[in-house]
């Protein structure tokens, strides 16, 4: 590990060493995401970009014991230390059979949402995204 670096783990699990200055804020890290994705296989980069374009992703710090979500407004960005792992996660929604949908919360719990037939058809057409 190079001194003054954090590790950004993309949504496919690939690790990328980044200077701490590149990870000092949400916007600063997002400015470097295209460079991160350019180092990935094209299919992996494409699917990650799909979620990023829709805002269906987040960043967390996982120290093995605790997970801390890094929001745009979080003060934690300025305290990131060398060796910190910043993990990018994609946020997915799932359309289930029988006119119901499920989504997974950041805490890991699955929640059911009742929806109508039109919403299901639109979700299937728009890539399984339901907005209500």
Automatic annotation (TrEMBL):
UniProt-recorded name of the protein: Ubiquitin-like domain-containing protein
Domain Ubiquitin-like: 7-92
Domain of life (superkingdom): Eukaryota
One Pfam family per UniProt: ULD_2
């Amino acid at each position: 590990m190079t001194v003054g670096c954090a590790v950004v783990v993309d949504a496919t699990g690939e690790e990328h060493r980044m200077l701490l200055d590149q990870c000092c804020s949400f916007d600063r890290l997002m400015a470097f995401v295209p460079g991160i994705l350019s180092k990935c296989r094209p299919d992996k980069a494409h699917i990650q970009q799909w979620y990023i374009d829709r805002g269906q992703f987040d960043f967390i710090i996982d120290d093995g014991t605790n997970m801390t979500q890094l929001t745009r407004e979080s003060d934690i960005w300025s305290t990131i230390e060398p060796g910190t792992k910043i993990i990018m996660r994609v946020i997915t929604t799932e359309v289930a059979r029988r006119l119901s949908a499920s989504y997974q919360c950041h805490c890991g719990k699955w929640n059911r949402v009742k929806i109508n037939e039109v919403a299901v058809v639109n979700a299937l057409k728009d890539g399984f995204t339901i907005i209500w």
